[in-house]
Write a structure and sequence with these properties.
29% strand; binds S-adenosylmethionine; 200 residues; alpha/beta; Rossmann fold; 6 helices; seven-stranded mixed sheet; single chain
């Protein structure tokens, strides 16, 4: 399976799964609690998908640029955009071709496990942030490889907090905190964490 195929097949029905919607709401509530959101901020949503997280956060900030490598996921996002409630879509891999713009914060949900090189990920996020900008990254806690039915584009079976903290620390971030914020119930429970940090 090519990395995009998972989302090619699922994009149209992505928002129909209540556990996905609930996860995005829980991540948004945790970001709102942990990060200093205000209506002056420009945020980057990395792996925005259909905008499940982004549209929850949008009313609290000035603007969100949603980047994704999947055209079909962004098509779903665009259908949800209105003139009052608008996430700017950007199709492309900013890990390969960074944006010119710098942001006040980066948010992301359930995308990190699809990114192979974590050192490069944190460096690139730091490169996209203003001084003291923040990241708020939600993903799965360490799991046994059963979360996805097909693991071909899954580079990490969740994350161990200390390992991830060390990587963030060594690649441009300080004040790193990781908290469990949610659990996803499938045939068993999977923990979801939120990592927050500031650019050094
Ligand atoms: C599991 S989905 C999560 C989507 C959304 N954040 C949510 O919570 O519903 C992961 C998303 O990350 C995107 N993605 C994977 N690799 C990416 C990359 N290198 N850059 C940007 N997006 C990427 C996928 O296309 C997909 O839309």
């Amino acid at each position: 399976m090519q990395p995009q195929n998972r989302f090619l097949q699922r994009a149209k029905d992505w928002d129909k799964l209540p556990r996905r919607v609930q996860n995005a709401k829980s991540v948004a509530a945790a970001i709102d609690k942990e990060c200093p959101l205000n209506t002056e901020l420009s945020l980057l949503d990395f792996g925005v998908g259909t905008g499940l997280l982004g549209f929850e956060i949008l009313p609290c900030v000035k603007e969100i640029i949603g980047v994704d490598t999947s055209e079909v996921m962004l098509e779903q996002l665009k259908e949800k955009n209105t003139t009052e409630h608008f996430i700017t879509p950007h199709l492309g891999d900013i890990l390969q071709t960074p944006l010119e713009k710098k942001f006040d914060g980066v948010i992301s949900s359930m995308t990190l496990h699809h990114i192979e090189n974590l050192e490069h990920f944190f460096q690139t996020m730091a490169q996209h942030l203003q001084q003291d900008g923040f990241i708020a990254i939600a993903d799965l806690e360490k799991e046994d490889g059963t979360f996805h039915s097909n693991n071909e584009d899954v580079f990490h079976f969740g994350f161990e907090s200390q390992t991830l903290k060390n990587i963030a620390q060594n690649n441009g971030f300080k004040n790193i905190k990781i908290k469990q914020i949610h659990t996803i119930q499938k045939t068993k429970e999977y923990g979801v964490f939120l990592l927050t940090a500031q650019k050094k």
